[in-house]
Write a sequence for this structure.
């Protein structure tokens, strides 16, 4: 009888053509396309479990999923075979054999996102960054970002009615950085709530456009009320960029 082996798979994708990571009825997801490709290449039904979910139109330069299959595989060869049949906007970076209890979602100790903003019309950034007209005050936004890191309950930045036990997250980095003429928000935490990064970016831009003061962020967070925070920014500028595990 074949031995069941668990594998982690690291992939990257442009989320423009997908209704997020997670499989769902009546919409094409990254997970569904990946499962189909894996099942074809491995010649057995394969189901993946991802480290989290990204929404429609959100990208990932790094996302991990795990799957079980019968028997050991030549990981480099199977990585090439998968990339040969996956669409051009999904790429497998590597497949890693892991211990039987390894879990892509529950074992992740840190996740990082970036949000990309540009200001001048650029056809090469369509669906990959959000264009806005007025440059915000980045110093004020970074003051507010530092204040956000003092808190752990982020109910005000979460979609309502999500099935999570707690809205607590430990943020270890929240910072705006210029990259040439693009502005990138970097944020890292042990976990994120649904829609949290896009809501934080929208709220920080209110600070950057001087609609509220950096200190005004405190009142929003303490309200624990989503309607107090800023509008969620579009999905096109958001990237999942890092997921850390103690054993990888």
């Amino acid at each position: 009888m074949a031995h069941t082996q668990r594998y982690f798979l690291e992939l990257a994708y442009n989320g423009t053509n997908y209704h997020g990571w997670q499989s769902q009825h009546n919409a094409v997801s990254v997970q569904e396309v990946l499962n189909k490709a894996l099942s074809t290449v491995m010649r057995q039904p394969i189901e993946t479990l991802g480290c989290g979910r990204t929404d429609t139109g959100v990208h990932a330069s790094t996302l991990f999923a795990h799957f079980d299959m019968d028997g050991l595989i030549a990981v480099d060869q199977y990585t090439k075979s998968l990339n040969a049949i996956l669409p051009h906007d999904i790429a497998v970076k590597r497949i890693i054999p892991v211990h039987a209890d390894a879990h892509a979602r529950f074992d992740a100790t840190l996740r990082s996102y970036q949000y990309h903003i540009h200001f001048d019309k650029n056809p090469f950034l369509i669906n990959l960054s959000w264009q806005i007209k007025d440059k915000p005050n980045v110093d004020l936004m970074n003051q507010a970002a530092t204040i956000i890191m003092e808190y752990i309950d982020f109910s005000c930045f979460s979609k309502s009615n999500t099935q999570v036990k707690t809205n607590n997250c430990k943020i270890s980095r929240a910072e705006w950085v210029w990259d040439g003429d693009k502005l990138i928000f970097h944020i890292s935490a042990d976990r994120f709530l649904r829609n949290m990064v896009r809501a934080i970016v929208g709220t920080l831009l209110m600070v950057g456009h001087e609609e509220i003061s950096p200190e005004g962020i405190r009142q929003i967070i303490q309200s624990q009320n989503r309607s107090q925070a800023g509008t969620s920014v579009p999905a096109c500028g958001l990237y999942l960029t890092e997921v850390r595990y103690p054993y990888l």
About this structure: The CA atoms of residues 69 and 140 lie 51 Å apart. The mean pLDDT is 95. The longest strand covers residues 59-70. The two ends are 29 Å apart (CA to CA).
